[in-house]
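Lab intake sheet, docking and co-folding queue.

SAMPLE TYPE: protein with bound small molecule
LIGAND NAME: adenosine-5'-triphosphate
LIGAND FORMAT: SMILES
REQUESTED OUTPUT: full 3D complex as structure tokens
PRIORITY: normal
SUBMITTED BY: R.K., bench team

The fields below were copied directly from the construct record.
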Amino acid sequence: MLNNLISVKNLKKSFGGIKAVDVQELSFIEGELTSIIGPNGAGKTTFFDLISGFQNADSGDVFLKANNISNSQPYKIARMGMVRTFQLTKVFDRMTVMENLLFSGSNVNNDSFLRSIFKLNSQKVYEKSLKDKANEIMNNLNIGHMADSYARELSGGQKKLLELARAIINDPEILLLDEPLAGVNPKLAEDILSLIKKLSEDGITVIMVEHNIEAVMKISERIVVLAEGSLIADGSPSEIRTNNNVIEAYLGKSDE
Ligand SMILES: Nc1ncnc2c1ncn2[C@@H]1O[C@H](COP(=O)(O)OP(=O)(O)OP(=O)(O)O)[C@@H](O)[C@H]1O
Ligand SMILES: [Mg+2]
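RESULT FIELD (auto-filled):
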């Protein structure tokens, strides 16, 4: 079989009487670009929260490679190479765009042990290289001209880009993206989509939650569908497009 990078078993999370997530078995394969879709409230964000450590499951297990990371702290999971973005961006409004990136970058690539050995000189080299990297990423995402602006001055779409930049600066092995295209204009959405595709081609395992079905169909190698917390379909875009359970799940919630 192919390499399972992330696997979950009997993963459950309820809020009061609502089953937000109830997934018996689901694995993600190394290098594959997978999208998770499903109606509003299907449990997609909660699923991300559970696998990235932002919420504890009621029961069940999450494995990252051979490690059981159930209930591990988010920063530990990030250091293991799995980094996420948020549906509602979590950029630091009172920091500049550059500071946001330096803060995130220094968070995970924490070779403080080495730095303490080589002391100041190497600290400067380290900061310079992190800054160069931040500049390169910002320029690639067309927010380089905003480097010294406060994050609160960014548009909604630009905040999405900054959030993506903060994830990328950590050189993730796995990137979880929660609605990277939401609230973004069509041109920018195209650009972000191309970037996601490129990250995937560069070898990053991308798992994306997204409501823009056209975009999902276009770039995904695999689509996983959740409804009311449970897995209802899993297949290629063409399989998902014609799957009756999927059509029903969406039509059943046609109050949007
Ligand atoms: N912190 C919370 N407290 C109570 N209920 C919650 C909480 N977080 C999520 N829920 C509920 O759990 C269910 C799943 O929510 P979740 O946000 O995971 O859905 P989603 O698939 O990401 O939806 P959307 O597409 O609208 O972002 C919903 O019924 C939601 O109301
Ligand atoms: Mg969500």
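REVIEWER NOTE: The mean pLDDT is 90.
SIGN-OFF: pending second check by T.M.
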